[in-house]
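Quiz preparation item.
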């Protein structure tokens, strides 16, 4: 699917959930991917493509964003905030977006703990954003959803009846030709080196 198709899928799904007081969980890699997803969703809210809701970062994603802020690269702002410590206890009152590691929904991670809370409610959604190992809990959940909603999914040793929407959208970690040329034009370096990988049998 094209980038525009994937973006529209994301806008449509987020609108559907957030306008109906649901919660959306993005399990995502802590470095790069979490911040990218947060900033894209924030931009959609600024452009009035989505209702304005809180975007919380948690787990290692939260810690990494805090380091970005310390280094002068602001991630946290009006919309994007570190998840408060009491979010788990006040989870039922929350209507917004949570982006948390691990991206593969590994047992014991913050994203797995959030999944335990939101998968059983049809008003919620869990959306994957990228690569997952074939043996990961995230892949098992995605395959389960493809077969039949309402099946039990074991996470953190607990069986959860899956009623929430589970989906995925492709968010490439690589720039295309236009993206690379735009970066070169913006940075205006004296030299540009390109490196290509070659694979041998």
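Solution:
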């Amino acid at each position: 699917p094209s980038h525009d198709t994937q973006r529209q899928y994301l806008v449509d799904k987020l609108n559907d959930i957030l306008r109906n007081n649901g919660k959306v969980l993005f399990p995502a890699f802590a470095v790069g991917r979490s911040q990218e997803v947060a900033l894209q969703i924030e931009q959609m809210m600024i452009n009035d493509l989505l209702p304005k809701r809180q975007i919380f970062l948690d787990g290692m994603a939260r810690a990494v964003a805090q380091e970005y802020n310390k280094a002068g690269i602001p991630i946290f702002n009006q919309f994007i905030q570190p998840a408060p410590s009491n979010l788990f206890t006040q989870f039922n009152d929350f209507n917004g977006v949570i982006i948390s590691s691990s991206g593969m929904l590994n047992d014991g991670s913050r994203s797995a703990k959030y999944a335990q809370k939101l998968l059983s409610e049809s008003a919620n959604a869990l959306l994957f954003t990228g690569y997952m190992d074939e043996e990961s809990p995230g892949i098992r959940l995605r395959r389960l959803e493809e077969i039949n909603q309402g099946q039990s999914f074991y996470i953190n040793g607990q069986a959860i009846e899956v009623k929430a929407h589970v989906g995925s959208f492709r968010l490439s970690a690589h720039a295309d030709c236009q993206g690379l040329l735009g970066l070169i034009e913006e940075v205006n370096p004296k030299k540009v080196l390109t490196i290509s990988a070659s694979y041998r049998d």
